[in-house]
Amino acid sequence: MIEIRHLTRVYDGVPVVNDVSLTIGTGELAVLVGTSGSGKTTLLRMINRLVQPTSGQVLVEGVDTATLPAHLLRRRIGYAIQGHGLFPHRTVAQNIATVPRLLGWPRARIDARVDELLALFQLDPATFRNRMPHQLSGGQAQRVGVARALAAKPDLLLMDEPFGALDPLIRAKAQADLRAIQQKLGTTLILVTHDMQEAVDLGDRIAVMDGGRLLQYDHPARILTQPAAPFVRDLIGATDRPLRLLSLKTVGDLAQPGDAEGPAIPPEATLHDALAECLWTGRTALPVQGGGIVTLDALRAEARPR
Known about the structure:
Blueprint: E1 2-11, E2 14-24, E3 29-33, H1 40-47, E4 55-60, E5 63-64, H2 70-76, E6 77-81, H3 92-96, H4 98-102, H5 107-120, H6 125-128, H7 138-150, E7 156-160, H8 168-185, E8 188-193, H9 196-202, E9 205-210, E10 213-218, H10 220-225, H11 230-236, H12 241-246, H13 251-254, H14 271-281, E11 285-287, E12 293-295, H15 296-302
Parallel strand pairs: 3-8, 3-9, 6-7, 7-8
Antiparallel strand pairs: 1-2, 1-4, 4-5, 9-10, 11-12
């Protein structure tokens, strides 16, 4: 569990993070979202003390991080940034092995961990282990960057705009892969983004920041249906709110008995995907793979706040 207590950072008399308090449960994915200059990246960097707080505390599993040597703290916390940040003169395997080597892991354990992570990120170890960063695509490099952050099996992973440099198709796949891997490993993850849709798609909880202050911290559905401030409402976007609500649930959540014509939709597809398919094909009901249907009327009902 991560507990942030009254965290503040002041530069030249101006607070860029102002008295922020929040708690992130073990295994949760929390997203810090806000416009440029809102303080979200500074808040993230104070967690691993790349930025020193002016006041306040960060506790990881009840331990005040200020009591730990900074270099040892950072080895325990994975950190991935936009643009992957790989060392250009090191191979993929050497990049992933960076922190385990610093921790003195034996060679055999390091090699096994590198291959495990490459396989987990769908990168064949025999093909990618000895490649250099310039030989990777943008999506491949980003996956290697996240694998490096996870190499020493940290309980906490920090990610700062990790998908910002990726094109939309690769970005969507990278987001889905990250969520699946995070759930599989049970890693607590804190991610910074300026993209509200990314926050809704990925977060168990969303922290909305503006001007260094935390305006709202809650589950995505509550952020969407009960914004706590005008800035939060504006960030959501009034016209986008129904579609964002539909992205929170899957077709399997709404399937009901019945039959419908046409190609079936997977149960893991979002309700947003189902609505798009109905509108594109002109159908009022879609069959669901494995049985049942999802109807346009049910999708419309789910898009309305309760």
